[in-house]
Amino acid sequence: MNIIRKVSEKPWLPQADDVSEGQLATHPKVPSERIALRFFLAVVGVVFFLFIITFLNRSQYPDFVALAGQPWQPFTNPSQLWANTLLLFTGSLALHLTRVVARRNADNTILFFLALSVFLSYLFILAQLSVWKELIVNGYGLALNPANSFFYLLTGIHGVHLLGGLCVLLSVSYNFWGNKSRTKLRASIALCASYWHFLFVIWLVLFALLTATPETFNAIASVCGF
Amino acid sequence: MEHKKLADQKATGHEPSSFISKYVWSQDHKVIAIQYAVTAIFVGLIALVLSGMMRLQLGFPDSFSFIDPSAYLQFVTMHGMIMVIYLLTALLLGGFGNYLIPLMIGARDMVFPYLNMLSYWTYLLAVIVLLASFFVSGGPTGAGWTLYPPQAILEGTPGASLGVIFMLVSLAIFIVAFTMGGLNYVTTVLQARTEGMTLMRMPLTVWGLFIATILGLLAFPALLVSAIMMLFDSLLGTSFFMPAISSLGNQLEYTGGSPILFQHLFWFFGHPEVYIVALPAFGMVSDVIATHARKNIFGYRMMVWAIIAIGGLSFVVWAHHMYVSGMNPYFGFFFATTTLIIAVPTAIKVYNWVLTLWQGNIHLRVPMLFAIGFIFTFTHGGLTGLFLGNVVVDLPLSDTYFVVAHFHMVMGVSPIMVLFAAIYHWFPLVTGRHLHSGLGKIHFWFTFLGTYAIYLPMHYLGFLGVPRRYYAVDGIDFIPESAHVLNMNITVAALIVAVVQLIFIFNLIWSLCKGKKSEVNPWGATSLEWQTPDLPPVHGNWGEEVPRVHRWAYDYSVPGVEQDFIPQNMSPEEVENLSK
Q: Would A46 be classed as within a structural domain?
């Protein structure tokens, strides 16, 4: 699929091997849903990229006070967020295991792992909300400081994407419960798993940024030219 | 056979039977396309009326009591937002994209028909929320389609309390709809092309739509991000964009935000957006010109490369909308350079259209007239864009009527010319009847000459320094009396052009029932959408068997063949018979 060769071919001339060319042209080696997911992940990636760039830019303004660095800052000791990260990791792991058992294990095993994935991911969201509650109780309200605003915004948008994924996962589970089709399930679970792993990587980046000290912010921002 | 599987999805479970499932909750791409088109044209007519009212105020100031400064700014904003996003983007990609992509690549439908249907109803929801903003307390937002903070959410700007919220929410819903639709278009083009349809055998319409969709998928997130942060600033008191500011004598709670941050985000979306509108137009006009000049498009490969290059470059020119924003002046160097570079592939396309016409067997039918009108008006608008792309020249012209004239020429007049060309060209396919060509020619000449009468003089207003988005420009010293006369004449021209569009609407409706029935492939086109067994194409498009493609989309007037076109799906043996 050399792209240069593709767009420099001369389409007004008969193609070299017209017989097999049909296969080259339209034999879909990758399922359409996977292609669509790749584009969707690109879109989600761009959303988070733009939020992060905006965050880095905004961090250089004088009113920005990072949420880590000094001992009294909430994320100087990010152990609660580490626990949440572990939860999300287990959610991704559970989904990966669901994919493995979907090949040949019993229906009940599959349903167990599906339920486990849903449960762990839901637990992650609840855990994130409890971090929010902690922050608010300790006086780190949304509008008081841009670092706070970005914390709620970024974790919120991440959580919304995870919730969307959960809706899809629930729908996949419901369909499997109904028609017990292994092939459909394996295809769907593979896509869900990719989405979960992607969101996990996004979370790692957000985690690193949200718990960064002012020095880190300044370093990254100057690299970006802010 | 495996390779036909996707193009040939005889998907059971989406064979509709009742009226509701065939024409309302339809998953057929052709029905969804018409739903998009009707909704987009409806909301576009509302925006046209708004522009008429703006022109009334500018040409005959203070003659109408219902147009006060607030209302004027609200009309400006809603006219702009509706036209750019809810009309042009929705009609070109949702309407024409949905209809033409599967047909032109030989597929039976889009790859995700259910998602396609969802995308239309989400779009409709976005339109309803947008129109609802007219009826909320304070009315719709008057912040300009660019919605710049801090003014957009401060008292003094119309709709700052509620109207702007509706606008931002409507945009977010539209972006969800567009993402759903966009995923469909790109996946269908990549996966569901019929046997023999390589990427380089696709008509330019599909290339334009394909690259525009990719642009949209990558650019609309920027608008979503900025809308979400603006909503937070407005509803939750955050200071993403809002600086320390007083409003009406009171210090507000915001501190430290950056309005320029919004501008960067908005234009990172905003510039690709204009190419999302332009690229499908470029593609469609290439096909219309080739068909009605009975000549292959000149330089097909360069046309494809140019579309891809324009798409890529469109992401690095955004700050040419921000030369006067107070951003780092060195940015001006960079963005002016990239802006001038993007003019190169665009100019190549213009040359190729002209060279396609050169010594062609030109049939001056209505679609061809509009296509030629496009070349004139787009060249005109593109040249004034070069003026504005240069920082120093832009400084005095920024926020004047020169800019208004420029973007109306490139975004208003030329894509609309293409839309009319496309509707007159593909109407026989969609409905099986012809639009009345006499009425079409009257429509063309009045529209073409009329829009020139509107926008050509407007450039001079810009040179004089007449500012845009001003409710009233009388009583300003540097604006001479002749400018007011010019404004009046522009208004008269605008009203005439607006009224003439009624001829088109009448033609559409009349021809639906009484138009001359069309024979199959009336224009003798080569591309696949005209080769369906039924006219208009029925559900499933191709009958028993999907077509097999043997050649590119532009075999017109091939030497040695008597018939002046060879359809893409005609086998070499059949072509032999034609040459005998």
A: no
Last residue of a domain, one of B518, B544, B560: B518
Q: Is A29 on the interface with B (CB under 8 A)?
A: no
| Residues of chain B positioned with their CB less than 8 A from the CB of A184 | none
Residue of A nearest to B180 (CA): A40
Encode pLDDT of A156-181 as tens digits.
999 999 999 999 999 999 988 888 78
Q: A9 and chain B: CB distance < 8 Å anywhere?
A: yes
Q: Given a cut of 50, is residue A23 above it in pLDDT? A: no
Kindly state whether residues B548 and B514 are assigned to the same domain. no
Do B475 and B550 have their domain in common?
no
The answer to whether residue B313 is domain-embedded is: no
* Residues B540, B427 share a domain: no
- Asked if B548 lies within 8 A of A51 by C-beta distance, the reply is no
Domain count of the fold of chain B: 2
Q: What is the pLDDT of residue B26?
A: 86
pLDDT on residue B329: 87
Contacts of B548 in chain A (CB under 8 A): 22
Residue of B1, B4, B183, B526 to mutate for A, most A C-beta atoms under 10 A:
B183
Give, to the nearest 10 degrees, the angle between helix A182-210 and helix A32-58.
10
Interface membership of A5 toward B (CB under 8 Å): no
- Mean pLDDT over A54-66 rounds to 92
- Residue at B504 is within a domain: yes
Q: What is the mean pLDDT of residues A98-117?
A: 89
Euclidean distance between CA atoms B215 and B283, whole angstroms: 15
Same domain, B555 and B506: no
The answer to whether A181 contacts chain B (CB < 8 Å) is no
Q: Please list the rounded mean pLDDT of every run of 10 residues in chain B (580 residues).
A: 48 64 86 96 96 94 89 97 97 97 96 96 98 96 96 95 96 98 96 92 97 98 97 96 94 92 97 97 98 96 96 97 92 95 97 96 97 97 95 96 97 97 97 96 98 96 95 90 95 96 96 94 96 92 92 94 92 82
Identify all chain A residues contacting B555, using CB atoms and an 8 Å cutoff. 12
Domain limits for position A183: 78-224
Distance CA B398, CA A108 (A): 67
Residues B469 and B407 in one domain: yes
pLDDT at residue B4, as a whole number: 45
* Selected residues 494-553 of chain B with any CB under 8 Å from a CB in chain A: 548, 550-552
pLDDT tier, A15 (very low <50, low <70, confident <90, very high otherwise): confident
Write out A90-120 in H/E/C secondary structure.
Answer: HHHHHHHHHHHHHHHCCHHHHHHHHHHHHHH
Half-sphere exposure of A13 (CA within 13 A, CB side): 7
CATH of the domain at A99: 1.20.120.80
Q: For residue B438, what are the contacts with CB-CB under 8 A and spacing of at least 6?
A: none
Is A204 among the domain residues?
Answer: yes
Predicted pLDDT of residue A1: 55
Cβ–Cβ gap A61/B222 under 8 Å:
no
- For chain A, the domain total comes to 1
Does residue B387 fall inside a structural domain?
Answer: yes
Nearest-angstrom CA–CA distance, A154 and A13? 53
Q: How far is CA B68 from the centre of its chain?
A: 30
d(CA B204, CA B188): 16
Give me the domain span that covers residue B465: 364-518
Chain A residues near residue B6 by CB distance under 8 angstroms: 26, 28, 32
Per-residue pLDDT of A73-92, as tens digits, reads 899 889 999 999 999 999 99
Residue B506 domain-assigned? yes
Find residues 210-239 of chain B whose CB sits inside 8 Å of chain A: 217-218, 221-222, 224-225, 228-229, 232, 236-239
Same domain, B546 and B419: no
What counts of helices (H) and strands (E) characterise chain B? 17, 2
